[in-house]
């Protein structure tokens, strides 16, 4: 297995869609995340377009199922981005259709794992004592989308498999996951703040001031007097969420493979598979 210190990153292969699987530092994971997103932007844009289109259309025409789709559609697009990222790491062909095809073929296991994760983590989060345990288990089971979609584990086994990969390196996995999620959120909020500022300065917001617009963006509070401006701002901010959405699943996927390389020598297994193919 490759040792850290010689080449501590997933070096992007200029001649293929894959990456060279080697142990990475956090800086290397972050750099490769943005590199992968940039190189495969049309693919991730196509996956995110499902979220943008469904969210905007359903909000305008079918309000009664918007709340359900606010949960289901982001989860499915997250899963699609996770699977696409895994295929890219393994230098395997992937399209928007094949990504969602894998998600749908593994849907029951994926939903089962997600429900188990949510039930345990949310239940523990209701008590002060349970919050640390919820954070611990949420991180320990955090790779379940990949163990379901990339390794084809069933629901409960996917959580156990994720726990095996995280065991002994919990603090590292937690800190990197948190940092990736916070960076993605910060980028999104910067663009949301900018778009909200533009709408506020346009003078088409009626009696709503800037802080009211910010509250509307965060909490979705309605205001009948400026429906047009709100609809425009909603569409812009949904597009921003769609564009920044792939950052987290790409980063988590790279961390998942990094764990497999460090704990299981997956880089050797992967090279042997490539040689046989």
Summarize the structure.
The protein is an all-alpha fold and 277 residues long.
Can you describe what's shown?
With 277 residues, the protein is mainly alpha-helical. It is built from 13 helices and two strands; from the N terminus they run ββααααααααααααα. The chain has a two-stranded antiparallel ribbon.
Order of helices and strands: EEHHHHHHHHHHHHH
Largest sheet: 2 strands, antiparallel
Content of β-strand: under 5%
Rg result: 20 Å
Q: Give the averaged pLDDT, no decimals.
A: 82
| Main β-sheet, spatial strand arrangement | 1-2
Task: Compute the separation of the termini in Å.
Answer: 20 Å
The percentage helix is over 70%
| Number of helical segments with 4 or more residues | 13
* Uncertain regions spanning at least 5 consecutive residues: 1-17, 221-226
DSSP summary, beta strand count: 2
Shape: globular
Return the structural class: mainly alpha
Labels describing this entry:
about 280 residues; mainly alpha; two-stranded antiparallel ribbon; disordered N terminus
What is the topological layout?
Blueprint: E1 11-12, E2 19-20, H1 26-39, H2 41-61, H3 66-89, H4 96-105, H5 107-125, H6 130-140, H7 144-149, H8 155-166, H9 170-201, H10 210-219, H11 227-244, H12 247-264, H13 266-276
Antiparallel strand pairs: 1-2
